[in-house]
Amino acid sequence: MEQIPFVDLTRIHTEIEEELIDAFKAVTDANSFIQGKFMEEFEREWAEYNKARFCVGCSSGTTALELTLKALGIGRGDEVITASNTFFATVEAIHNTGAVPILVDAKREDGLIDPLKVEEGITEKTRAIVPVHLYGQMADMAALKEIAEKHNIFLIEDAAQAHGATFLGRPPGSYSKAATFSFYPGKNLGALGDAGAVVTNDEKLAFRMKSLRDHGRQEKYLHGEFGFNMRMDGMQAAFLLKKLEKLDVWNNDRKIAARIYRENLKDIKGLNLPSLNEDLESHSFHLFVVLVEKRDQLLSALKERGVSAGIHYPVPCHKQPAWEKRYGKMHLPVTEWWADSCLSLPIFGGILEKEALAVCEAVRDAAKSL
User: Fold this and answer.
1) Whether residues 284 and 198 fall in one domain
2) CATH number of the CATH domain containing 275
3) pLDDT over threshold 90, residue 369
4) What is the mean pLDDT of the chain?
5) Is the confidence at residue 211, as pLDDT, over 90?
């Protein structure tokens, strides 16, 4: 059987190879390597794409979230509620501000943060809620916005996996104080290295973040406060500008594959499909995840059939050694069930319909032997 990769970045980079070479040459000709005009252009384009007033380019998705929290004055003595069913960087960014991450459980049907558990976790020390838009699907932002406003706390979206996603027709950042993005190479919109960004409609917040990301700089050699080195480099910005032109096309490739998966895998015993908040169009399908009773056996069986798959995530944040050492043990049953059951199937910009159909055939064949 033909080998089907979990993700194939070579495919999309080959497609726009000339554009990427042109971007490289433009940056080297302009000597605009750190921040600069390419970053500023990307900030304008990414803000417009997300219907936001401002964008702040950063060095990574992790620093984008940490920068946002710090710019809002969140730190020691504060609590920030977030999901455990996510990549560890979300929790790490909160911890690095000096605030205490408060991890809450997920909804069984989609793995996203549970608004009911969020409200139960609020205390007098809570300063913010950070929902994670997992796998490309936005959390229930209407419910979370209502909770945040009720308790007068910040709502900050971790949209690291939600490039092009919407909730009730609105993109990340439109329900909250800010939304943070990662442009790690494997994301729907990925750099050729590390990069991130924040979108917001708050002018004062954007201004402070732009200062803090650059050593607290107000103007050259004048620093108003102690800041950080969290700057986006011009080369990554130039590459992202070229790739942004293709984002909707590549996202559509993902949606076509997702539709094939959902139509062909819906009746397999022992395999369940997560629910959709709305429909396929609102989901950007950074990952396509199924829930499998005998997950590890299916993973091995797919490998034997030439299909690469993954697990996102095998160890939830509250079970990580770093968490248990610092904050102790805790039990989040739904999150733990997801960690034991989730399996990510191949999905990426440029995936072919015949590849998605071949994955379905392999899953159905492998499931017979489980």
Assistant:
1) no
2) 3.90.1150.10
3) no
4) 98
5) yes
Question: Of the candidates 247, 235, 268, which has an alpha carbon nearest to the alpha carbon of residue 343?
Answer: 268
Domain boundary among 241, 262, 278: 241
Does 4 map to a domain? no
Per-residue pLDDT of 311-356, as tens digits, reads: 999 999 999 999 999 999 999 999 999 999 999 999 999 999 999 9
Q: What does the alpha-carbon distance between residue 351 and residue 170 come to, in Å, rounded to a whole number?
A: 26
Distance, in Å, from the CA atom of 70 to the CA atom of 227, rounded to the nearest integer, reads 10
Q: How many CB atoms lie within 10 A of CB 224?
A: 12
Residues 289 and 232 in one domain: no
Total domains, the chain: 2
Domain boundary (241, 269, 299) is at 241
DSSP state at residue 346? P
Q: Where are the beta strands (DSSP E) in 29-132?
A: 54-58, 79-83, 100-104, 126-130
Are both 147 and 196 inside the same structural domain?
yes
CB 46 within 8 A of CB 244: yes
SS (H, E, C) 227-288: CCECCCEHHHHHHHHHHHCCHHHHHHHHHHHHHHHHHHCCCCCCEECCCCCCCHHHCCCCCE
Cα–Cα distance for residue pair 320/312, rounded to 1 Å: 14
Task: Report the b/e string of 271-281 with b at 16+ CB within 10 A.
Answer: bebbeebeeee
Model confidence at 1: pLDDT above 70: no
How far apart are the C-alpha atoms of 211 and 204, rounded to whole Å? 11
Amino acid (1-letter code) at residue 152: N
Q: Do 20 and 143 share a domain, yes or no?
A: yes
